[in-house]
Amino acid sequence: MATENNNKNKHALITGGTSGIGYELAKCFAEDQYNLVLVARSQEELQQRAQEFTQQYGVAVTTIAKDLFDPKAPFELYNEVKNKGITVNVLVNDAGQGQFGKFVEQDIHRLLQLIQLNTASLTALTHLFLKDMVARNEGKILQLASIASQLPGPWQAVYHATKAYVLSLTEALVVELKNTEVTITALQPGATDTDFFNKADMQDSKIMDTKLSDPADVARDGYNALMKGDDKIISGLKNKVMVGMSNVMPEHMVAEQMNKIQQPKGEEQ
């Protein structure tokens, strides 16, 4: 663990930082005495978390309520942080959602919102804060990808596609940043016990009958990889095996396997 003297003046900005993996990541940073900039849609939840982290860890917590489904929000967020005089030493792009169902039966406007949140807003925030990091030659970025980034996902086609984008972007930036002191890391969890499934209307998916990962374990894996400057980390042995097998199987077989895992209970295709 890093020492207080190293981190007490540093800031970690975490989107989606009030619940799930984002919340657990915020705890990791607070334990290491990073000051926090928490971003989420609910000001009430942000205030609750700010009070919790301030009391428990003694760190400064700045809260900014933003809806990253809005294309203007990443730019507004960046400007608010700059106007507050905060230097973001670590950016964590955690905010993301999915939507369960067959692609042709989905609301296209909802799917386009997911693309905005999962890829466009993430890209904008990465670009805005990365430029400052490169100029300082200091900083770290953690991108929430997923093992979905390497597995075609029937019943969650757009979500899997957005995570493939996140992984591809991250892997490209790893190379572009190799001669700097700035690092970027992709965290690839599998199905994790968070509110993701409720927001994605996935209660009837067969994946809910599988053992879900603990978000605290996922966050710790991601935090440790980030601090070491690793390019990416697949969290959990089961997920490592699944991705490893997918690398040697034909794509159509991987997609069929994911179809069986994710399809509605009682449905066979």
| Helix proportion range | 40-55%
Note the gap between the termini. 48 Å
Side-by-side strand order of the widest sheet: 3-2-1-4-5-6-7
In CATH, the architecture is 3-Layer(aba) Sandwich
Weakly predicted, low-confidence segments? none
* CATH topology-level name: Rossmann fold
Reading off the top of the CATH hierarchy, the class is best stated as Alpha Beta
What is the count of helical runs?
10
Per DSSP E runs of 2 or more residues, the count of β-strands stands at 7
The whole-angstrom Rg is 18 Å
**Main beta-sheet strand count, sense and barrel state:** 7 strands, parallel
Nearest-integer average pLDDT: 87
Helix and strand content put the structural class at alpha/beta
Index terms:
269 residues, 49% helix, 7 strands, globular, oxidoreductase, single chain, Rossmann fold, alpha/beta, seven-stranded parallel β-sheet, 13% strand
Describe the protein's topology.
Elements: H1 4-7, E1 11-15, H2 20-31, E2 35-40, H3 43-57, E3 61-65, H4 73-83, E4 90-93, H5 108-136, E5 139-144, H6 157-176, E6 182-188, H7 196-199, H8 215-228, E7 232-234, H9 237-246, H10 251-262
Parallel strand pairs: 1-2, 1-4, 2-3, 4-5, 5-6, 6-7
Helix pairs in contact: 2-8, 4-5, 5-6
Family: Belongs to the short-chain dehydrogenases/reductases (SDR) family.
GO molecular function: oxidoreductase activity
Keywords: Oxidoreductase
